[in-house]
Design a protein that fits this description.
Blueprint (H helix, E strand, L loop, with lengths): L2 H9 L7 H17 L10 E5 L4 H10 L8 E3 L7 E5 L5 E6 L3 H8 L6 H8 L5 H4 E6 L5 H5 L5 E3 L6 E3 L4 E3 L2 E3 L1 H5 L6 H21 L1
Parallel strand pairs: 1-2
Antiparallel strand pairs: 1-3, 3-4, 4-5, 6-7, 8-9
Helix pairs in contact: 1-2, 1-3, 2-3, 4-5
Length: about 210
């Protein structure tokens, strides 16, 4: 595919093009090639799990046409510039990450550019895949069918009452729970926090009196 066109797609929502966007485009193309799939066709045969978010992912999207909205892109935020590409028909999964010394290699490929940022900008556009990436066949720890779920799967949490889609509910003690009610989540409701503090303070006072 035309690399410059893909870079334009990646940068259209930004005010600039950066090395990580270029890296994302190149990695997306490498993943498609490794799985021997059609580039940028937008179908659901390709599922992508990226290990970070940000402008790097915009490059991945431009190269693969996989998106969160189409259920073909997922983020497992490990803070790593790495992506697993999954062929949903064959179940083959490959994880691709930059080689550990990719920046040093970029400087070698752009010896006339003394500014490291711009050396990466140049080199990432033409470096061979084998000098940029490690490619590993991997096995998913969660079955692919569980990741993909099925359309129309909806239940309500027995505690908070909110709807849970895509078979993400948790079964505990005969109850159907959302992840937050079962394990806690990334937030808490302020009134619940106040109530918890009040209960904790009351328990502390009771313990002090008993002693």
């Amino acid at each position: 595919m035309n690399l410059q066109h893909l870079l334009e797609l990646s940068s259209r929502d930004h005010s600039h093009l950066c090395p990580r966007q270029i890296l994302g485009v190149r990695m997306g193309l490498c993943g498609i090639k490794t799985l021997q799939l059609e580039p940028n066709h937008g179908g659901k045969r390709l599922l992508i799990i990226t290990e970070t978010d940000g402008c790097f992912v915009d490059g991945i999207v431009a190269a693969t046409n996989c998106t969160v909205g189409h259920h073909t892109l997922r983020v497992e935020d490990y803070g790593k510039v790495a992506v697993t590409f999954i062929d949903t028909q064959t179940d083959r999964a490959v994880r691709i990450a930059p080689v550990l010394d990719i920046r040093r290699r970029a400087y070698h490929h752009a010896p006339d550019e003394l500014r490291h940022y711009f050396a990466q900008m140049q080199a990432y556009q033409f470096m061979p895949d084998e000098e940029m990436f490690t490619v590993q066949d991997v096995t998913l720890t969660v079955p692919l069918a569980q990741i993909l779920s099925r359309p129309g799967m909806r239940v309500n949490c027995d505690v908070c009452g909110e709807e849970i889609m895509n078979e993400r509910e948790v079964r505990q003690n005969g109850m159907t729970l959302c992840h937050v009610c079962a394990y806690g989540g990334y937030y808490f409701v302020e009134q619940d926090a106040s109530l918890s503090c009040t209960i904790a303070h009351s328990d502390y006072q009771t313990a002090q009196i008993s002693n």
